[in-house]
Amino acid sequence: MRLLIPTSFLMLALAAAAAPAAAQTAPARPMPIFGLPDAGVFSGGVPTGRRTDAPLPLTLADAIARGLQHNLGVISREADVDMARGGRWQALSGVLPTVSGRIAENREVINLAALGFSGFSGVPSIIGPFSVFDARLFVSQPVVDANGLFRLRESIQSLSAARHGYRNARDLVTLAVTTLYLQAIASDSRVAVARAQLDTAEALARLARDRKQAGLVPAIDVLRAEVQLQSERQRVIVAENTSAKQKLALARAIGLPLGQAVAIADAMPDAPARVPALDDAVQQAYAHREDLQGAQAAVRAAEAGQRAAFGEHLPSLHVDANWGPIGESASTAIPTYTVATTVRVPLFTGTGRAHVIQADATLRRRRAELDDARARVYYEVQAALLDVQAAEAQAEVSARAVSLAEQQLVQARDRFAAGVADTIEVVQAQEALAGAHDSRIASLYGYNAAKAALAGAIGLAEEEMPRFLGGRP
To answer: 21-95+152-310+351-470: which CATH number, 1.20.1600.10, 3.30.450.20, 3.40.190.10, 3.40.30.10?
Structure first.
């Protein structure tokens, strides 16, 4: 029996604080997929299709649709369903009639002396050669077999658990692809901000050179502006590299053709979340979480397995029959048949007792896993709601910080142009704005990732992800 091991969505850790200005030139580490392991089947995909020379415009809906078709996690869970279906057919064979046929034509010579029949007067020791033709149909049907019946029920529940695992995998893929797509948007946003900062630094460097030639500022101001310009160029290089790698991770997860360039078509959502109350969200999760329903099916399978193990000690009733013509040749064969009813009574089997002990242990474990799954769902939903609330507050604060930093930079540049400040003040204002933008991008990403994780925690990732991200009722 294959058991669905539910994958946790949660423990959403939002790191929205901006990195220090001195660390902006260091390569940025990829942001984690919230609620999912950094590696595994859900990060892989089967490349499908033909590569195009132009970048492929990709919306979030397109990415999710491709992920649900080509992600390795979905394909693996679909194979698990087929394996469970095969197990059900195998168990079904134990309660259905077995029908087989045989046609044989033999040419025989029998040595009776070799079989212990010798010394009989008038009986030759060699009989034959003679021919035997036999065409026969065999049927065997278990009539009463508790073990076979409960093994079938166990396989049916195992198939149900595998199907829940498949649907759970689709939710996980939706969450993984959504998070990767949000990461790609955030990376593109950082590239745009870095390029804007580079334009600002170039303008400042030109202004500093012009003012030095006019004798209004010392050479140190020009040097500071040039240093800041090189720093911004480094930021652009790092941001572009990080963006390219994020798109590679997205392309792999959704099975794009190898080498296919991607153009992100959607902007970062910035809609307020419609957060349900905790009790309502928990009830929705209990009704929709496929991993929880898979754990329930696993318990039912273990209960049937326990009864099947006990059924090994019970008598069983079987009917066996055969019919067919037999004779010296096909033309002279005469139909014959045999019908037998067999009662099998197991008196002692050591393996039967072992199976009972193992089935009891399996059932206890499955019940404990189900209780843990219920508790985990509750805590994951509660944590997801807290994360959404905190991320929303961080997004509001970061928006205000960007506005203030932009005003600070405008005033610093005006003061430098008027000759009442040097480039130190302008460089500091640029660094503050860069940090504010980075914090804003991180907070928006964290806010949307928290909403996506809430959809996953409730069990509605595949069906209602756009509603959670777009804030629609």
So the answer is: 1.20.1600.10
